[in-house]
From TrEMBL, chain A:
Record field: catalytic activity: L-glutamyl-tRNA(Gln) + L-glutamine + ATP + H2O = L-glutaminyl-tRNA(Gln) + L-glutamate + ADP + phosphate + H(+)
Keyword Protein biosynthesis found: yes
EC number: 6.3.5.7
Organism field: Aureliella helgolandensis
GO MF term list: ATP binding; glutaminyl-tRNA synthase (glutamine-hydrolyzing) activity; transferase activity
Keyword Iron: no
UniProt xrefs under Pfam families: Amidase
Gene Ontology cellular component list: glutamyl-tRNA(Gln) amidotransferase complex
Role, per record: Allows the formation of correctly charged Gln-tRNA(Gln) through the transamidation of misacylated Glu-tRNA(Gln) in organisms which lack glutaminyl-tRNA synthetase. The reaction takes place in the presence of glutamine and ATP through an activated gamma-phospho-Glu-tRNA(Gln).
Name of the featured protein: Glutamyl-tRNA(Gln) amidotransferase subunit A
Keywords: ATP-binding, Ligase, Nucleotide-binding, Protein biosynthesis, Transferase
Automatic annotation (TrEMBL), chain B:
One Pfam family from the record: GatB_Yqey
Full protein name: Aspartyl/glutamyl-tRNA(Asn/Gln) amidotransferase subunit B
The enzyme's E.C. designation: 6.3.5.-
Family: Belongs to the GatB/GatE family. GatB subfamily.
Domain spans labelled Asn/Gln amidotransferase: 342-488
Keywords on record: ATP-binding, Ligase, Nucleotide-binding, Protein biosynthesis, Transferase
Catalytic activity as recorded in UniProt: L-aspartyl-tRNA(Asn) + L-glutamine + ATP + H2O = L-asparaginyl-tRNA(Asn) + L-glutamate + ADP + phosphate + 2 H(+); L-glutamyl-tRNA(Gln) + L-glutamine + ATP + H2O = L-glutaminyl-tRNA(Gln) + L-glutamate + ADP + phosphate + H(+)
InterPro entries: Asn/Gln-tRNA_amidoTrfase_suB/E (IPR017959), Asn/Gln-tRNA_Trfase_suB/E_cat (IPR006075), Asn/Gln_amidotransferase (IPR018027), Asn/Gln_tRNA_amidoTrase-B-like (IPR003789), GatB (IPR004413), GatB_Yqey_C_2 (IPR023168), Gln-tRNA_amidoTrfase_suB_CS (IPR017958), Gln_synth/guanido_kin_cat_dom (IPR014746)
GO-annotated molecular function: asparaginyl-tRNA synthase (glutamine-hydrolyzing) activity; ATP binding; glutaminyl-tRNA synthase (glutamine-hydrolyzing) activity; transferase activity
Cited function: Allows the formation of correctly charged Asn-tRNA(Asn) or Gln-tRNA(Gln) through the transamidation of misacylated Asp-tRNA(Asn) or Glu-tRNA(Gln) in organisms which lack either or both of asparaginyl-tRNA or glutaminyl-tRNA synthetases. The reaction takes place in the presence of glutamine and ATP through an activated phospho-Asp-tRNA(Asn) or phospho-Glu-tRNA(Gln).
Oligomer status and interactors: Heterotrimer of A, B and C subunits.
């Protein structure tokens, strides 16, 4: 049986029906990782022993009828930004190369509680800063569909491991598009939930007001089933929402008749938008129309400010969040021998110069500058004001439509190294995704077939805050209408 | 001070540790004196992914304090990050409050140390909550540069109470701090133990001089971490003199030199320049995205107001107006703290007269507490028992001096009731006739005293009282004196 061709929910069903044990499934995927990952570099850590031990426990619990979760026994890959007490957490950084957290992220703990089996930790841009997984201290991840291209970022390992069939489900994080963009580049589904829907406790912070854990999967059912486990209030995260978690899977079958879909004019008409991506969005629009939806033209007037706003807010918060990596308490330290002046300052400066990569340093500098006394009002404060305008744009739009449709990225997966010398070009790739983070609303990336060059294409849907059920419902209906088929890249 | 050629201008920043059982943003204990790094968790260690969750108790205590200090309380308060690098600051920023503190402008009245019965007022700028940092311990013995960090204190809730520069003398600053400490202990919001660092003060000091027809201000100096009342008084007095000398030498005025930070060397009795942890003091404050702004409800304010209890200023007025005590006596009782005031009130409630209670507390009770190093809560003589004695003295059943014998007896035998104490000490009432014959006896035995008194030297009467007590310990000294004097005059 080719387990990589099953969705996580299907695999869960087989495990629950005892057609296959969790141990067999886990072994199967671990073996695929062993066989394939040398070429993809999706994993930075594989926890074979702990995964097998855990799968035995789950098998035992299943045989005595103790686990009721539909994903019990199903392997899952975790982005290395999520703290795990049984595996290292490096965040793709030399700074945390040997860091072993003494605790586990709430989101991961929820998955463990439901009997999922973490296979290992997936590669990512350093501290989730980047759009190509090339800034990782562990080296770049490759796109299984074209090994000379990036899988996207920063959850590049999380999307690549799915595309190569090395895991049936994976968990990423999305600060400005870091789940949706790699999902789009790798031909899988990715969900960024409403800000606060999933606990951030144990998610290593990049930009606290934007970060959100999000699942990546082959099917919309898998996203719904995993969100069901991940979502909910956490008393350890003050920003987590104290709202009931709906039954996401129950909503999937709802017909789309009467649905109002807004097509984002600024996104569809954007000069940077690749023709094939544009065609994919138009195909999605037609499909929704065929499913009974009304299509409306919607405008998000502040779209052009979203990238600059994002690149002020996110680095500002990051400059604070990354201050703790000073070489004092844990993580990377470079000694201050032969330093002029204060040994302490030299130690901190050297640790940070050598522990962080170029992109992280660039953003720390940007954030430090934007928050500094003379520039706060001109940059940080202004960015917060514009952020409000952007959120208002979405609110306005959702006054007349239920979901918004547009592209995820301007173009399909770009080549490795292509944007590395041009950070601004790299930042512009986030144009269509950062809005959802700035507004705190949920958005989903869905596969939309392949380009003529054989690269995955994708479309994006947005919903109002806490509108995940509706969002997943629409996405599921599109999937059911065979808008896309889950596919695994063949690595020869 | 008036003889000085300058006006001293002082503002105090007082850090009071709030009496919460757990830290400001996590559940770790705040108990003092535990072995290093035993009261820590991922949150207070600032580990990657850990998130702060506000301690509601700290909010309650801060509100109670703000109301007692007549502060303006806005309906919304928020948290900010204050960024700086220091080894005992695990996150690289301190969570504090910048532009929306929990308590706004207020004031505190306190007894003028130089004019008994008069009050002085210090205006308060604000009081804000913040987390404490850890403690660095440097061991440089034997040429080692060995530093260790104890993070037990990290995250302990502090209320920083900032005054306007309204104090004009070191004594006034000390008196303000004394009243503030008294208020905080009455409110039960802080134990204000200065040895354990639960109350620390920084003093901002400068001088205003009349020079060539205009008022000149010297550069402000902040004297850090004053941890005793004596230190506050001495440091300010020293600093005033030092600034005056410096001004005579350099003529430097405010604005011509940056604000300086100095430390107080208690042993040497001097202030010494301190290198700032943060060279430029650009803390790059910005709203902490991990904590949502906090709404203060009317109900919270009402609850806090209900928990204020009787404040020292009100208690002083009550003791003066309702109990008829002199301002000085009322202040002594109230300044001993809520425990002694409660003891006073219990004595009054049991029927003893206020003036007698006041004098017994001030002379006997407080002396005993001091000698035996006791708190009033541990004082062996209950208020009920002492009240019985004082009522008996008021009624003339026991004379005041025999009452002191009972008091002494009770210190060792607190279980004895008044009758038992009296019989153990052989106290019985003596009738007037008996005293009269005793006095006659004494005059016959001491003709030289009679002659002295007749010459107008009344001192000799004292020796007669002593002799009378030897013959009959229950002889009321006042009556003996009175009768002897009358008889000698009659002999005249
Ligand atoms: Zn803690």
């Amino acid at each position: 049986m080719k387990l990589e061709l099953l969705s996580a929910v299907e695999l869960g069903r087989k495990i629950a029906a005892r057609e296959i044990s969790s141990r067999e499934a886990t072994t199967y995927f671990l073996d695929r990782v062993d066989f394939l990952d040398a070429r993809v570099n999706a994993f930075v850590h594989v926890g074979r022993e702990s995964a097998l031990a855990l799968s035995d426990q789950v098998d035992q619990a299943l045989s005595s009828g103790q686990v009721a979760s539909p994903l019990a026994g199903v392997p899952v890959a975790l982005k290395d930004v999520l703290c795990t007490d049984s595996m290292p957490t490096t965040c793709g950084s030399r700074m945390l190369e040997k860091f072993q957290p003494p605790y586990t992220a709430t989101s991961v703990a929820n998955l463990l509680q439901a009997g999922l089996i973490p296979l290992g930790k997936t590669n990512m841009d350093e501290f989730a800063m980047g759009g190509s997984t090339e800034t990782s201290f562990s080296g770049a991840t490759r796109n299984p569909w074209s090994l000379e291209r990036t899988p996207g970022g920063s959850s590049g390992g999380a999307s690549a491991c799915l595309a190569a069939g090395m895991a049936p489900l994976s968990i990423g994080s999305d600060t400005g598009g870091s789940v949706r963009q790699p999902a789009a580049f790798c031909g899988v589904c990715g969900l960024k939930p409403t800000y606060g829907r999933i606990s951030r406790y144990g998610l290593v912070a990049f930009a606290s007001s934007l970060d959100q854990v999000g699942p990546l999967a082959h099917t919309v059912e898998d996203l719904a089933a995993s969100l069901q486990l991940l979502a909910g209030h956490d008393s350890r995260d003050s920003t987590s929402l104290n709202e009931a978690v709906p039954d996401y899977s129950a909503e999937l079958e709802r017909p789309l008749a009467g649905l109002r879909v807004g097509v984002i004019r600024e996104h569809l008409e954007h000069p940077s938008l690749d023709a094939e991506v544009r065609q994919a969005v138009l195909r999605g629009q037609q499909m929704l129309k065929d499913l009974g939806a009304t299509i409306l033209d919607v405008t998000l007037p502040h779209t052009e400010y979203s990238v600059p706003t994002y690149y002020l807010v996110a680095p500002s918060e990051a400059s604070g969040n990354l201050s703790r990596y000073d070489g004092v308490h844990y993580g990377f330290r470079e000694k201050a021998e032969n330093a002029e002046g204060s040994q302490l300052e030299a130690m901190i400066a050297r640790s940070r110069s050598q522990g962080f990569g170029a992109e992280v340093k660039r953003r720390i500098m940007l954030g430090t500058f934007a928050l500094s006394a003379g520039y706060y009002d001109a940059y940080y404060k202004k960015a917060l004001q514009v952020r409000r305008l952007i959120a208002d744009d979405y609110r306005q739009a959702f006054g007349s439509v239920d979901v918004l449709l547009g592209p995820v990225t301007p173009r399909p997966a770009f080549g490795l190294g292509e944007n590395m010398s041009d950070p601004v070009q790299m930042y512009l790739e986030d144009l269509f995704t950062v809005g959802a983070n700035l507004a705190g609303i949920p958005a989903i990336s869905l596969p939309a077939g392949f380009s003529e060059g054989g690269l995955p294409l994708a479309i994006q849907l947005h919903a109002p805050a806490l509108g995940e059920a509706r969002l997943l419902n629409v996405a599921y209906q599109i999937q059911q209408a065979r808008f896309f088929e889950p596919k695994i890249a063949e690595l020869s | 001070m008036t003889s000085m050629p300058y006006k001293l201008v002082i503002g105090l920043e007082v850090h009071a540790q709030l009496s919460t059982s757990t830290k400001l943003f996590c559940g770790c204990s705040t108990e003092f004196g535990a072995p290093p790094n035993t009261q820590v968790c991922p949150v207070c260690l600032g580990l990657p992914g850990a998130l702060p969750v506000m301690n509601q108790r700290a909010i309650e205590l801060a509100l109670r304090t703000g109301l007692a200090m007549n502060c303006q309380i806005d309906s919304v308060t928020k948290w900010d990050r204050k960024n700086y690098f220091y080894p005992d600051l695990p996150k690289g920023y301190q969570i504090s409050q910048f532009d929306q503190p929990i308590c706004g402008e207020g004031y505190l009245d306190f007894p003028d140390p130089e004019a008994p019965g008069e009050m002085l007022r210090v205006r308060l700028t604000r009081a804000h909550l913040e987390e404490d940092a850890g403690k660095s311990m440097h061991d440089e013995a034997g040429g080692k540069a060995d530093s260790r960090i104890d993070l037990n204190r990290t995250g302990t809730p502090l209320l920083e109470i900032v005054s306007e520069p309204d104090m004009r003398s070191a004594q006034a600053a000390k008196a303000y701090l004394t009243e503030l400490r008294l208020l905080l202990t009455y409110l039960g919001v802080s134990d204000c133990n200065m040895q354990e660092g639960s109350l620390r003060a920084d003093a901002n000091v400068n001088l205003h001089l009349e020079h060539e027809g205009r008022t000149v201000a010297t550069p402000i100096v902040e004297v850090k971490n004053l941890n005793s009342f004596r230190a506050v008084e001495r440091a300010i007095a020293y600093e005033a003199q030092r600034q005056f000398e410096a001004w005579k030498k350099t003529g430097q005025e405010m604005g011509q030199a940056p604000k300086q930070t100095r430390g107080w060397d208690d042993a040497a009795g001097v202030t010494v320049p301190q290198r700032e942890k943060e060279e430029s003091s650009d803390y790059r404050y910005f709203p902490d995205p991990d904590l949502v702004p906090l709404r203060i409800t009317q109900q919270q304010l009402d609850t806090a107001r209900g928990e204020l209890g009787e404040l020292p200023a009100v208690a002083r007025r009550r003791l003066e107006s309702s109990e008829g005590l002199k301002a000085y006596d009322a202040d002594v009782i109230v300044s001993q703290g809520r425990g002694v005031l409660g003891y006073f009130d219990a004595l009054i409630a049991a029927g003893a007269s206020a003036k007698r209670v006041s004098s017994w507390i001030q002379q006997d009770v407080l002396r005993t507490l001091k000698e035996q190093n006791l708190e009033i809560e541990d004082f062996p003589i209950t208020a009920e028992r002492l009240a019985q004695l004082l009522v008996a003295i008021d009624a003339g059943d026991v004379d005041n001096s025999r009452g002191k014998d009972v008091f002494q007896y009770w210190l060792d035998t607190p279980s004895a009731n008044l009758e038992q104490a009296k019989s153990a000490l052989g106290i019985e009432s003596v009738d007037r006739g008996e005293i009269e014959s005793l006095c006659r006896e004494l005059l016959e035995e001491n003709p030289q005293v009679v002659a002295q008194v007749q010459d107008g030297n009344l001192k000799g009467l004292g020796s007669l009282i002593g002799a009378a007590k030897k013959k009959n310990p229950n002889a009321d000294p006042k009556l003996v004196r009175q009768l002897c004097q009358a008889m000698i005059e009659a002999m005249g």
